[in-house]
Amino acid sequence: MKAIKLASVFAVSALAAAISTTTIAAEPTFKGTAGLEYKSMVKGSDAAASRGEVNIIGTVGSVYFDLDMENGSDGGFDLDEIYVTQGAVQFGDFDGTLLDSVAYSAGVEEDDDVAKNDDFGTDLGIRYAVNDSLKVALEVKEGDNIGSLAVAYSTNYAGLTLGVSAGYEMSDDDKADQVVTAGVKAPLGMATLSSFVRIGSKDDLDVMNTGIGIDLPVSEQLTLAAQYFTRGGEASKGVDLADQGVTEVTAYYAVGDVKYYASMVSYEAKTKDYSVVGAKVSF
Beta strand 29-41 with 53-60: parallel, antiparallel or unpaired? Predict the structure, then answer.
């Protein structure tokens, strides 16, 4: 099936929608983080880093935007999201693919989520909210003409949050490109359990990604979080991926406005292991 070329449609439509309305929202909101952290590497050099980040979030007429500014070695300006809302329809640049909206995970600090790095779905697209639970989308990579169809459904039932998403990538070749993701969040005493599984195929190669995590508020000051991700499937036909798992455990301790944290990240590829300690204030 010939893919639909969307990039120029997004740009023209977003500009037209912005110009056609004179409704201006309140002043943009500012939120972010200030702090310091230190990273200790098993292999390689240790390093200190800033946790300075500011998000400017606002709405101008029907256009929503989120501008992220960071300092540090990989800092700079990043327009996380900018999209247009017209009734139940949204189009533009979103913060990630619709497919990942049901891949629930725990609140660990580094969140190196290799399980979802399968190059399926993208952040440019047109979304339609059928109702509060069900959304459908047509997504495309910037500068490309290969689109993918996506649908996501989530609901709350008996204290559980349940979600499922499915995606199908359209292309001119005969390769099978489709994935299904199912996720669940469940109360577990004081804790909250999060998990997901993703199965399907990409470029005719099997995809099998999973994640499971837990958040435990021990007290008003102390919170623990743990997460395990693994990316499975095939590296090539008949050859399984290896050394793709990552485990992270984080402890947060709040004193007044300051949140102290320590996180250990362990990879199945052992030479990548590291830990971070730091302190930050959110505003």
Answer: antiparallel
| Model pTM score | 0.84
Instruction: State the Cα–Cα distance between residues 74 and 110, nearest whole angstrom.
Output: 15
Residue 77, helix vs strand vs coil: strand
Give the tens place of pLDDT for each residue, 190-232: 999 999 999 999 888 899 999 999 999 999 999 999 999 998 8
In tens, the pLDDT along 232-257 reads 888 888 888 887 889 999 999 999 99
AA letter at 206: D
Q: How far apart, in whole angstroms, are the C-alpha atoms of residue 195 and residue 230?
A: 12
> Which residue from 83, 69, 49, 65 is spatially nearest to 279, judged by alpha carbons?
49
Sign, CA torsion 99/102/108/109: positive
115-132 tens-digit pLDDT = 676 778 888 999 999 999
Contact 17, 62 (CB under 8 A): yes
Dist. CA 139–CA 174, nearest whole Å = 20
Q: Which residue has the tokens 């993701």?
A: 181
- Smallest CA-to-CA distance from 46 within 275, 280, 254, 263 is with 275
